[in-house]
Amino acid sequence: MTRPFNFSAGPATLPEEVLQQAAGEMLDWHGSGMGVMEMSHRSNEFVSIYENAEADFRELMAVPPHFKILFMQGGGLAENAIVPLNISRGASADFIVTGSWSDKSQKEARKYCDVQIAATNANSDYTSLPPPASWKLRRDASYVHVCSNETIHGVEFQELPDLKGLGSDAPLVIDFSSHVASRPVDWSRVGLAFGGAQKNLGPAGVTLVVVGEDLLGHALPACPSAFDYKIVADNHSMYNTPPTYSLYVAGLTFQWLKRQKEGTATGVGAMEKRNLAKAQLLYDAIDHSQFYVNRVSKDCRSRMNVPFFLRDESRNEAFLAGAKARDLLQLKGHKSVGGMRASIYNAMPLAGVKALVDYLRDFEQKQA
């Protein structure tokens, strides 16, 4: 039976192979007599799951050895507090506000440090990106924060900023929740990256943090021990009980990603090729229509989250009902912006995007 195509922004669609493997191992993981949800996180069985997941992600994303990979809890939203608690030193931090998520980040960080909005695209309704040359960065900032892909507004940095080239020695912090593993990361420009797994890496519950060793050991006294990056790193993400099942499924997803091939490209390289093709197909269909519109500047459109609007929004409900009847699910836009949104993460096959494009054209023709 063919499954519906799920365009949810998160928790999002997972690779069918991963779901089938997890289902097959639900009652008995590798002959252990236990399901992963039943295992002690200190057991040899689960430690092997954790170690393989960490090693696979490091290989998949080409993470340099001087970065620690942490599996934490609380999602990207909690990291908005955990990051300043760990690396602000109670001093200052600069934020580039390019949508709802980076705006939430700067508001949360104000509880722990002196925050400056160094640049924003709010005057464009978050449909463009402020050029890095225009950013007003402070020389004494403890870090600079960007959300490298805004899930709600569909704005993505096509290249991470080079802070050194902008005259800043501050580490760059990126929230890559909604496009992690969809494209390579230039780690030479990053001090810390974080993201919830539930969009591109697995189910909700586990949060990935990749942090440079030089940023460990500076947590504020008020930082809870379970959120102190150094403590978490020293205890191999097991200072407290980790989200074991979510980590396990994320590990299966890493293995699935490593198996992907597209021409001569493998892993994340293969996914980037597919994601470019999927995004171009969908954006082309919207741009060549008189019925739909995407308002994001073409130089910063997200490959993962494609917001669009019907020019006649009185037809929204009919559009969503028709989509559901064709097994195209979760296309309603975020409540803060309205319209529609198609999230086309790694696990969304090209066939799903083609099915959506066919529906866009059919609906437009029927409404003409």
Task: Please tell me about this protein's structure.
The structure is a single chain. The chain is of the alpha/beta class. The protein has two domains: 17-258, Type I PLP-dependent aspartate aminotransferase-like (Major domain) (Aspartate Aminotransferase, domain 2), CATH 3.40.640; 262-367, Aspartate Aminotransferase, domain 1, CATH 3.90.1150.10. Helices cover 33% and strands 17% of the residues. It has helices at 16-24, 44-60, 75-87, 100-109, 229-234, 244-259, 267-287, 316-325, 350-367; strands spanning 5-6, 67-72, 92-97, 114-120, 144-147, 149-150, 155-156, 172-175, 192-196, 207-212, 261-262, 265-266, 292-293, 305-310, 328-329, 340-343. A seven-stranded mixed sheet has the order 2-10-9-8-5-3-4, sandwiched between helices. Strands 13-14-16 form a three-stranded antiparallel sheet, with helices on one face. It has a two-stranded parallel sheet with strand order 1-15. Strand 6 and strand 7 (155-156) form a beta hairpin. The longest helix is centred in the C-terminal third of the chain and has 21 residues, at 267-287. It is globular and about 60 Å long. The two termini are 33 Å apart. The mean pLDDT is 97.
